């Protein structure tokens, strides 16, 4: 019993089941006590053998259900609902042998219904309303009447008692369905609100981390400006010194270094320029073809030797999309990852419908482990131990920022497929 009463760090379904089992144990003790009082103080005849069988069945079911607490993953809404149905059936059986609807505790049938309405989805509440209504209807017409020990006559059958029982039945059924409508509806709204609040809190936490990263990036942009300018000058001076044909290899490498430095300077300039730019916050409208061409041109500066296969799958006319700097950087990061995985074969497919543009990037590398894919589906963490870099985290945040979605999945043969889609700007055309 102490385990029932102790606080737990279990999941919500396990905690709900633990409380239900505790309530069932208390209810069983209360019923046994009520039987004793009725026999010795009220002096009514009760069928002890059937009641004893019912009580032992409830006890055995409760002990068996207790072992589900050791495997919280097995506790589902269906399983919890079955537990409540068992409570209804067992209580109905007890009421059948103790006067049916004339028993003042017949309204206890509403307890499992109130639990279902509060903790389970609305459909379960309506089903439970039907079940307890059928149970109550059954004990109105079919039951073992209560008989006094000294006066073997059915109790409560005089006058207009039958009409009174019918009125109680009508009130019970109305209460059950009103509870299913109002209580279950309010509980469902509360669950949706809590889910929305949890998502908003998660997004707020993520945005706070991104703001911190943006602040660091802006500061780094100012600090790196002078070193990059110095390296650019030195690389240019060195390149001018290698003019002989046999020095062409070194000269080409220096030219590549200058291009990379220029790319860094442009990126830092964009960060500084866009930091307080309102258009960066709201996005920019651009044609899909122009966006992809700019993206590829920017990416190939750092990946000139990678083989990229571009496939245009969408129908004309070209749609307009909403894009911003962070989204472009995210797409380049995904292309970089694909290039590192398989430099000789990277595929970029572009498609769209009336609502979304869909970009698929495929490689022929080793793909991801199931653990990494699970972490990506849940939420990318800024942890070096996961194998998921900061760029992947930012990519996911940037896509979601424009109301898009990004997914990762391993291809059947080998390699990784990354699908990115976000809304078009005012449809096609």
Proportion of residues in helical segments:
55-70%
Specify the number of helices: 13
Name the poorly predicted regions: 1-9, 382-387
Strand percentage: 5-15%
Total strand segments = 9
What's the structural domain tally?
3
- The radius of gyration over CA amounts to 35 Å
Summarize the helix and strand pattern as letters.
HHEHHHHEHHHEHEEHEEHHEE
Structural class: alpha+beta
Order of strands, widest sheet:
4-6-7-9-8
Distance between the termini: 69 Å
The profile of the biggest β sheet is: 5 strands, mixed
Can you walk through the features of this model?
The structure is a single chain. A hairpin with a 3-residue loop joins strand 6 and strand 7. 62% of the residues lie in helices and 11% in strands. It starts with a helix and ends in a 6-residue tail after the last strand. It folds into 3 domains: 156 residues; 71 residues, Helix Hairpins, CATH 1.10.287; 141 residues, 2-Layer Sandwich (Heat Shock Protein 90). Helix 3 runs antiparallel to helix 4. The longest helix has 81 residues. It is α+β, with helices and mostly antiparallel strands. Strands 4-6-7-9-8 form a 5-stranded mixed β-sheet.
SSE inventory with pairings:
Elements: H1 2-5, H2 12-42, E1 44-45, H3 48-66, H4 77-96, H5 110-119, H6 122-141, E2 147-148, H7 161-241, H8 248-274, H9 278-282, E3 284-287, H10 288-300, E4 308-312, E5 320-323, H11 325-341, E6 346-352, E7 356-363, H12 370-378, H13 390-401, E8 405-410, E9 416-423
Parallel strand pairs: 4-6
Antiparallel strand pairs: 1-2, 3-5, 6-7, 7-9, 8-9
What are the main properties of this structure?
single chain, 429 residues, alpha+beta, Helix Hairpins, Heat Shock Protein 90, 3 domains, five-stranded mixed β-sheet, two-stranded antiparallel ribbon, 9 strands, elongated, disordered N terminus
